[in-house]
Amino acid sequence: MSHVTCEEVPLRRYGRALPGREGPTGDRERALDRQEPDPGHAGEGSGARMPDLFDLVVVGGGVIGLSVAWRATGRGLRVAVVDPAPAASHAAASHAAAGMLAPVSEVTYTEEPLLRLGTASLERWPAFAAELSRASGHDLDYRTDGTLDVAFGADDLAALDDLAAFTAALGLPAERLTGRECRRLEPMLAPSVRGGLLAGGDAWVDPRRVTAALLAALGRTGATLVPGRVTGLLTASGAACGVRLESGGHLDAGRVVLAAGAWSGSLEGVPPEALPPVRPVKGQIMRLRSPEPVLSRCVRGVVHGSHVYLVPRGDGELVVGATQEELGFDTRVTAGGLWELLRDARELVPGVTELEVTETIAGLRPGTPDNLPLVGPTIVPGLDLATGHHRGGVLLAPLTADLCAGEDTGSVRPAELAELAGLCSPLRFARGTPGPSPLSESGLAARERDFTENTTREHR
Ligand SMILES: Cc1cc2nc3c(=O)[nH]c(=O)nc-3n(C[C@H](O)[C@H](O)[C@H](O)COP(=O)(O)OP(=O)(O)OC[C@H]3O[C@@H](n4cnc5c(N)ncnc54)[C@H](O)[C@@H]3O)c2cc1C
After folding, report:
1. 257 and 233 share one domain
2. Which of 224, 389, 395, 396 to mutate to test the pocket of ligand 1 (most atoms within 8 A of CB)?
3. Tally of domains in the chain
4. How far is residue 374's CA from residue 378's CA, in Å, rounded to a whole number?
5. Alpha helix (H) ranges present in 59-195?
6. Ligand 1 centre and the CA of 154: distance in Å?
7. CATH number of the domain where residue 356 is located
8. Residue ranges under compositional bias (Basic and acidic residues) (predicted)?
9. pLDDT, tens only, 110-134
């Protein structure tokens, strides 16, 4: 892998007026011209000159990259986001996602650190949604009516009882319901539903509206959107100083955040020990439509051993998801995947088979070896990660933005924010192998030591 340095890049820096407003440009300069803000997107109408040096360049314009960028512009930073299809990349997880903000009903016993991150981010969602709606003028379809987990058989009911006890022990809101109580809440549920658990604090949102709103809000702040692909990290004296673009240009930056979702695991110029161990986890999902709302809240269940969920939108859309498949960068929608989703959804809500199918899609979740995200500084000074959010990137977007900005919009104490940052620190994988549990203090200390040693070596 070749390591390109800023000094080696012969192109001039940004800082010219927009194309056509200044003198003729040569070929290489035209390559740069293509990186000017895209009309209709962020930066529109600003008429501003491109900065010589961005404070922050974000690689990837999914829900994570855009949230990080938006929070950074709020702090007065000069920000650029680079993505060939921001908020709309067909295989991107954010474009496929259902949008459940459901840390409680997603929780499993082995994932307590993830639950802590999820609840901390859920706490931030009301303010994040309100601020983003105000800043963009967009309605996010953000709803807070909770998630209903339902069960059919004795085993499922026992699992719900365990989950109820676990959530109660953690002090999280969850109410055990009988089958009849479930149907009173959701009359379209199957008569065979025997019980449920209502996680009243869970919420949901339309992720496509969120990313559209983030783009609009970024546009109003004068952030720069660069429609293209990043092909490499630029470094100077071992520190990140910008990115190389596929078109041949480059952007100089004080700091680079790699937020390219499932594609974050390979970027030329990033030393192997700093590359995030992210893999694509395929999720097939379908969108149905009904003239009348079928459900008033998210409904989930385990059918034939697999999880299925139904997420209603305000406009009559019903999202049914999702498969979890380890097939690399495969984004084919398959008959088998859709059949399983419909088969299981029909067990929960028999009426779904009457609904119109409006879309089927597969997105790639950025999975990590321990299912925890990778957010924060790497062993390369100036290079941060914001990736690896796997099944919960929409939920975790506000917290991720706070962690990257180093400021708290929630109510946790600074020590707690530092602990949350520790849970998702990329340094736990700094040498390519998972370290001790991210919850253990000694583990964190060991990783800090690793960081210092690695950094020292880098600088030698
Ligand atoms: C079917 C499905 C359902 C889901 N449901 C939920 C849910 O209900 N709740 C929840 O919280 N989460 C859910 N998720 C997970 C969530 O969608 C992800 O965790 C989240 O979207 C990750 O966001 P991201 O911005 O990191 O990645 P992505 O959304 O994948 O965005 C990555 C971006 O990086 C860009 N990119 C890639 N390479 C480059 C490059 N070299 N240069 C520039 N740009 C590049 C891509 O074009 C893309 O736009 C779901 C995911 C799937 C697939």
Report:
1. yes
2. 389
3. 3
4. 10
5. 63-74, 93-96, 103-106, 112-136, 154-169, 179-185
6. 36
7. 3.30.9.10
8. 24-41, 446-460
9. 688 999 999 999 999 999 999 999 9
